[in-house]
Amino acid sequence: MRRPQARATAANTRGYAGDEVAGYLRDRYHRLRVTLALDLLTEHLPAAATVLDLGAGGGEVCALLAGRGLRPVACDAVPAALHSGFPAVRLDVGEVLPFRDRAVAGIFAGEIIEHVYDPALLLGECHRVLRPGGVLVVTTPNLAPAQDRLRFLLGRAPRQVDPFHEYLRLHIRPFTYPLLATGMRSVGLVPGPPRSNQVVWRTRFGEARSTWLARVLPTLGGSLVVAAVRPS
């Protein structure tokens, strides 16, 4: 019988077999999320620093990292991701990472930690392979955005834990900012304050989105974007 992480990886590989990342980046919501993450990486890292892109997909984010003057390494369980034109490593982010201790200056884990059976292992592995002073930037859907706080008060489940949603059903480890920060601290990383892309309010008539509100009150936003540093 396969272990839970192997089953989770297989389910995600099937569920995201198409051109998912490129599709996401055509949506301003996800472009903002990635831009915030790139801003954090470039704030913390020198030019030409090596950055692991965990869950690299077709290499779209690697191209953006390279455009910021960084040196990305595409990391993914899907073989197609290894042909992105960037240095690439095939791996499962839910297992021990195939890198030596203190090997890299930066790691980008975009929309991946919520898919992992054992996020403590992933965070611990990120700490291990980061150099002292290196930075991990995580983006993940927020379990407690503005609308879902009201939904929960009304006895309805938060959107991120819908086991029957087309793709949210693959999100097996949802996070709030305090929970994510606690996990980072538990492995020796020092998290910074959260950032977020947009506060989203969904109705049957459409969506209302506010970038300004997400900037002012990031824990109400749809995505959490958090940088965590390995202390020197």
Automatic annotation (TrEMBL):
Domain Methyltransferase type: 52-138
MF (Gene Ontology): S-adenosylmethionine-dependent methyltransferase activity
Keyword Transmembrane helix: no
Top-rank taxon: Bacteria
Keywords attached to this entry: Methyltransferase, Transferase
GO biological process entries: methylation
Signal peptide bounds: none
One Pfam family of this chain: Methyltransf_11
Descriptive protein name: Methyltransferase family protein
Organism expressing this protein natively: Actinokineospora auranticolor
Lineage, top ranks: Bacteria, Bacillati, Actinomycetota, Actinomycetes, Pseudonocardiales
